[in-house]
Amino acid sequence: MHFSVGLSLCLLGFAFVSLFSQPAQGQVSSPRRFRAKIQSPTKLHVSWKEPKGQFDSYKVFYTTEPGGEQKDIEVLKQEAKLVIEHYDPSKEYNFKIIAVSGGQQSKPLQAKHEAQQSGVAMVKSLKRQDSGATEENNEISEGKFF
C-alpha cells in the first residue's frame, strides 16, 4: 500500500512539473538562441531557433542606433532567419523577434548586434527566464561567412 501511494505521488509530481514547464494553453512560446553573422560589408544574417509548440509565423522588429530607424518584417514559420540587405556596421541593431499564432503573440526574444569596432562585431542576446533577463555575449568575426 505504501509503495503505490509513493508511486502515485511521484507520478503526480512529475505531471505537475511537466504541466508547468510547457506554456499555458493558448500561450505562444518565444523564439530562442539569437545569432547574427556578417555575410558581407553590407549584409547581416540573423537567425534564431524556433519555439516549441504551435505557431504560424514571426514578426521581427529592429531599430538602428544612431538614427532610430525602425523596421518590422513578417517572416514565414519555416524560415527562422532574415538577411538585412543594407547593413551598416557603424550602427547598433536592436532586435525583437515574436512568434505569432492566430491573434496571439509570444513574449519577444530580444537581442542587440553592436556596432563594429576593429573588425569584430558583438552580439548581446537577452534571454527571458523565470528569474529575469540574462545577457550573453558572442563575438562574431567579420571574416566568417555562410
From TrEMBL:
Keywords on record: Repeat, Signal
Gene3D superfamilies named among the record's database cross-references: Immunoglobulins
Residue span of region Disordered: 112-146
SUPFAM superfamilies, alphabetized: Fibronectin type III
Domain of life: Eukaryota
Start and end residues of each Fibronectin type-III domain: 30-121
UniProt xrefs under InterPro entries: ECM_Regulatory_Proteins, FN3_dom, FN3_sf, Ig-like_fold
Cleavable signal peptide: 1-26
Name of the protein described by the UniProt record: Fibronectin type-III domain-containing protein
